[in-house]
Write a structure and sequence with these properties.
11 helices, Four Helix Bundle (Hemerythrin (Met), subunit A), two-stranded antiparallel ribbon, elongated, disordered C terminus, mainly alpha
Length: about 240
């Protein structure tokens, strides 16, 4: 059953006291041209912050603190991935670096008439093993199969992020993929807390570097120094409370 109204109001006031409202978080992703995606990323950002504040207020420790850290890492890594995916395959899709990212050099078997193939196979072998006739070809890779580190490196090569941020983003994403019990046992909780904190702190740097590159490329003339913040308003129900700045 839900908390009593007084308790809920106190929790909501605490959570929203230092967190901007939903429009601010959506505007944070103003470099995302897909408005539906920008809205979704803004919602993910504010929800991640609110969940952090709730658990911070509870002063969680031990196993609950691990859960708090895990949730933060997974959410921020997902935000970084979605933003980079959009930038590469929507905004910079025609760039040769992005096109190359979706290609892979491989070998295709050459179709040879059965009679000639049998003759060739009788002569072509290596240490008793058959040799197959192939040709080198460029194959397309499904976008969903491209590794995050390769996408992040491409973003670095496009000048969207610098090398230092690249390494951290890869670290966040690898941590997200490696989150399971054995991994958590091997890594100290102190390291995990630092990682989740850095994942949050790098959001602004991530945005600033991308926006600076947009301006340098002439994609936009300029961005405001900071997204505007709404004035505080008194709570008027749970939905409105979580929209407070």
């Amino acid at each position: 059953m839900p908390f009593e109204k007084k308790i809920k109001d106190e929790i909501i006031v605490y959570v929203t006291r230092d967190i901007a409202n939903e429009p601010w978080h959506v505007d944070f992703f103003r470099f995302i041209s897909d408005q539906k995606l920008a809205q979704r990323l803004g919602e993910e950002f504010i929800s991640t912050r609110c969940l952090y504040k709730i658990l911070e207020g509870l002063d969680v420790t031990k196993w609950m603190l691990r859960a708090q850290v895990r949730q933060q890492i997974m959410s921020y890594a997902s935000i970084y991935e979605a933003a980079l995916h959009h930038l590469l395959f929507e905004v910079f899709a025609a760039d040769p670096k992005v096109i190359a990212l979706g290609q892979q050099t491989g070998r295709n078997d050459i179709s040879i008439p059965a009679s000639k193939l049998a003759l060739l196979k009788s002569h072509l072998n290596h240490n008793g093993k058959p040799i197959f006739i192939t040709c080198e070809a460029v194959k397309k890779i499904k976008v969903t199969k491209i590794r995050f580190d390769k996408k992040a490196e491409c973003a670095r090569d496009l000048g969207l992020i610098d090398n230092k941020l690249l390494l951290e983003l890869i670290e966040f994403y690898e941590a997200r993929n490696a989150i399971h019990i054995h991994a958590e046992i091997r890594k100290s909780l102190k390291y995990q807390i630092d990682l989740s904190w850095r994942a949050y702190r790098r959001m602004e740097l991530f945005k600033n570097q991308i926006e600076a590159r947009f301006v340098a490329l002439g994609l936009v003339s300029s961005f405001p120094a900071k997204p505007p913040k709404s004035k505080r308003s008194k709570p008027s129900g749970p939905a409105a409370n979580f929209a407070m700045p």
